[in-house]
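In this section we walk through a basic example: taking a raw amino acid sequence and producing a predicted 3D structure, encoded as discrete structure tokens. The instruction is simple. Fold the sequence below.
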Amino acid sequence: MAVITLTTQDGQKVQYVDEMIGQGGMKDVYFSPDKSYVVAFFRDKLDFQGQERLKSIVGTYRDGILQREGGAYWSELFCWPTAIVEKDGKLGVVAPVYKSCFFFSHGSVNNDFLGIKGKEKEGKWFASASNRSKYLAPQERGNWLTHLQICLSISRAVRRLHAAGLAHSDLSYKNVLVDPSSGQACVIDIDGLVVPNKYPPDVVGTPDFIAPEVIETQHLTKTDPNRKLPSTQTDRHALAVLIYMYLFYRHPLRGGKVHDLDAAKDEELMMGSKALFIEHPTDASNRVKADQLGKAQLPWGDPSKMPYTIAGPLLSDLFIKAFVDGLHDPQKRPTASDWENALIKTIDMVQPCSAKCEMGWYVVDNTTKPKCPLCGTTYQGKLPVLNFYSSRQGGSFKPDNHRLMVWDGQSLFPWHVNRFVFPGEKLTVDQKKRVGYFQLHQGDWYLVNTGMPQMYDAVAKKDVPINGSVKLNDGAQILLSREDGGRLVQVQLVN
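The resulting token sequence is shown next.
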């Protein structure tokens, strides 16, 4: 095949092999000779506004996000185009190739009978109970902890876009690649970003993820002031749907209620003006009809068996805000930051399933006896729960609404030690290193200090040196840091 050489708008030389490797909704894609990047040409000619938007995304906004402090961190969460090219009157973008983890290594069951090995891991494979159980090889499915981590990565990416004044406009499992085996995610289709009040969207979104107000007003012209177009607020709806689907493998609005005998009209009402959460706490009219579910959809397809509340209190509150309070009131929808914070704290509340079932991990809400919701296996033995308090002015400590469920080998990090350290793009190399770990020894639990020079046993009134340990008795109080924002943990033994 011929190798084509082009010069980008900013003067770089790029090459591609003249053999199409894929087609998206708007672009044709070609590999570079060494397959380190792709060149994707728009099939349709972009108008002036579209060209200017593309220039700002590849230029100003890319520089603002990827070329500043934390840029390396964000480059892992976005597949951001690096340059613009033109050939035969068609514009194209240059973009890095996705990481290898975002391609199927095992594919489908029965020796990959679907032939998806080597193909991109579109999120749709992992957000459907039937797809997961019927088609995906077990090695591809991940577990509930990695799915929580995927949701956290997507929330962070959306938070960064919104902080820059951008909206994705087509946030869906089509435009998010995920790797459940490692818990990684990458947001793609960046060239379609919306710059509110400057560059309008090219698309209104992907079915299942379009906000109700967009569907309800889609009959109006784009110039009509009552027409609702993609924005940061519609992104918030799509993000909530994504998180719900990656955790429960079902759609939050697809229940048993029929609004119209005409299938197309019914779909429009179900996702638009009549949209109703399938787990609405007071309106049961859109409950899933479990007797109509296939075997492959169970138990996840039946909310009565796997309700949203298994995600713990923090995420449960946000699901209510997203799908009850904010479903038809965009102002009330949780922000990406809300999801990020709740997911960080929820991940600290997980416990491994002792039966090592497919779910693998579950959230302990500290109100009931710990039990895996999928296989029913109850936790055996003593379970330490660390309740976090942090120092305030005047030497007082106040609760942080943050607790840590302990498991054998679990690590303690600087963001657990001090409330001013936030796990995200600003972490230094040292702040990513664990400073302690938990160990189960002869039926007793210990916290081993590996990097907390100020650790102090407040009950025994003695310092805990580096490489020393403290037993986690019920009622134990351990000061992790004396610095401003330093945390005190109070140990509660359950079971």
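Looking at the output, two observations stand out. The two ends are 67 Å apart (CA to CA). DSSP finds twelve helices and 21 strands in the chain. In the next section we compare this with other chains.
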